[in-house]
Write a structure and sequence with these properties.
The chain has 12 helices and 18 strands. It is an alpha+beta fold. A hairpin with a 3-residue loop joins β13 (304-311) and β14 (315-323). It is globular. The model has no long low-confidence stretch (mean pLDDT 97).
């Protein structure tokens, strides 16, 4: 295998939560015209974790079908991307490693840069596989998006995990060089260590996203990337699905193209099916957009896809991938649709209880109510240790 051999996404699977809050229920509670949610931000519902679900249980649930299909022997690295970290020291991926029975001869690490970290994990994985194409890397991006109750960010919450197996000769998408990169020190969205919920300057964050998109695109072109017209579809980070429409309109404008609504819908319409019902899943969001495109789009064989990863604070990356012939035989469309359809609706009061739940920091034994019907659960916090179990 040479340096130029194809490396990319060999398998992709996502998981989400036990519960769902519809925007209809949120609108009824807060007196908002439903048009603002359904049309204005493009959201129908948002995933709500059960008391015994978190980034580890979702990450393990997303990754289990991948290890079941491909085995674990070649996995020597697990990269866990999140901005919902559960520990300042231990990587959440170590719990997943244990739940999935991965080999001890593997390295596990957690990385962070807001919603961009899933892409950082992917790029690190590509480098490792390029160094030794016999190895595979399990990338997990898992997040719970949480803002204060009653705040403007509340309708843009959600939760999900995406797991991807990065390998040589991939079955789904070959990832290409170059990447376009952009970093700027802005305070558009952040979460200090002492807070459970994020702080955001909502309208500033939209501008920061568009600036970062523009900067990463310009760098992509300077690095010798493809022309805009070569792409068949674009997977954007989707904090809410309307953001992808705003972003694509901005990119077309920057490139001097017509900002025709039908063309924007053609380029991104198939990428929003999961995000519109799951909500913001931070690091996982852009990869949910990819799952949606592959699961719902027309035949994309040999077509180029543009990826626009944005993480507040901020870092952005624009890169390209090409869809591999035969990819449809490897998709998990039915499982993905089931992951969304199986969620149980909760009313605003129940969602509010789950939202406000937190563990006492007293070091005592705190069992967690049995709620999830997923494969893994957080069973307890005991002497400051999180105890997970297979259901
Ligand atoms: N019918 C149809 N549309 C309506 C409507 C109605 N009845 N009422 C309002 N709208 C439209 C508005 O015109 C507006 O559309 P445009 O943006 O196209 O003008 C849209 O609905 C939203 O309305 P507002 O701007 O008035 O809404 P808001 O002030 O409550 O804020 C928000 C919206 C900024 C997205 C807020 O929900 C928020 O702060 N969310 C969290 C931050 C976020 O997601 N930022 C995205 C970029 S940062 C990022 O990408 C990283 C990340 O993951 C966080």
């Amino acid at each position: 295998m040479t340096q130029d051999a194809a490396i990319g996404i060999h398998d992709l699977s996502f998981a989400t939560t036990e519960f769902v809050l519809t925007h209809q229920a949120l609108a009824a509670h807060d007196g908002t015209d439903i048009g603002k949610y359904h049309v204005g931000i493009g959201q129908q519902s948002m995933s709500v974790p059960a008391a015994d679900e978190d980034i580890v249980t979702m990450g393990a649930a997303a990754a289990a079908p991948i290890t079941a299909r491909h085995g674990t022997d070649q996995i020597r690295t697990v990269v866990f991307a999140t901005e919902t970290s559960i520990d300042q020291s231990k990587a959440a991926g170590v719990y997943v490693h244990s739940l999935l029975g991965l080999p001890s001869s593997a390295r596990v690490v957690e990385i962070k840069q807001a919603c961009y970290a899933g892409t950082a994990a992917l790029q690190f994985a590509l480098g490792l596989v390029r160094r030794d194409p016999s190895q595979r890397v399990l990338v997990i991006a898992s997040d719970v998006s949480k803002y204060d109750l009653g705040s403007p960010g509340e309708p843009t919450q959600g939760a999900a995990a995406v797991a991807m197996l990065i390998a040589a000769d991939p079955a789904l998408v070959r990832i290409e060089d170059p990447s376009g990169l952009y970093t700027a020190d802005v305070m558009d969205f952040w979460r200090p260590n002492y807070r459970d919920t994020a702080l955001v300057d909502g309208h500033e964050s939209i501008n920061a996203y568009l600036q970062a998109l523009e900067g990463s695109w310009k760098d992509y072109i300077e690095q010798g990337g493809r022309a805009l017209g070569e792409f068949s579809a674009f997977c954007y980070h989707q904090p809410f699905t309307k953001m992808a429409y705003k972003a694509h309109r901005h990119l077309l404008h920057v490139c001097g193209h017509d900002t025709d609504a039908a063309e924007i819908t053609r380029a991104i319409g198939h990428t929003t099916a999961y995000n519109t019902v799951v909500g913001n899943s931070y690091t996982a969001s852009m990869y949910l957009a990819l799952a949606s495109l592959l699961d719902h789009g027309e035949d994309l064989t040999d077509k180029a896809i543009g990826f626009i990863s944005y993480g507040s604070g901020s870092v952005a990356e624009f890169f390209a991938g090409t869809v591999v012939p035969g990819y449809r035989e490897h998709l998990r469309t039915a499982e993905h649709q089931e992951a969304v359809a199986r969620r149980k609706p909760v009313d605003y009061a129940r969602y509010g209880e789950l939202h406000e739940r937190s563990f006492p920091a007293d070091g005592g034994d705190h069992p967690v109510p049995r709620e999830t019907s997923g494969p893994y659960r957080l069973a307890a916090l005991s002497r400051h240790k999180r105890i997970y179990e297979v259901r």
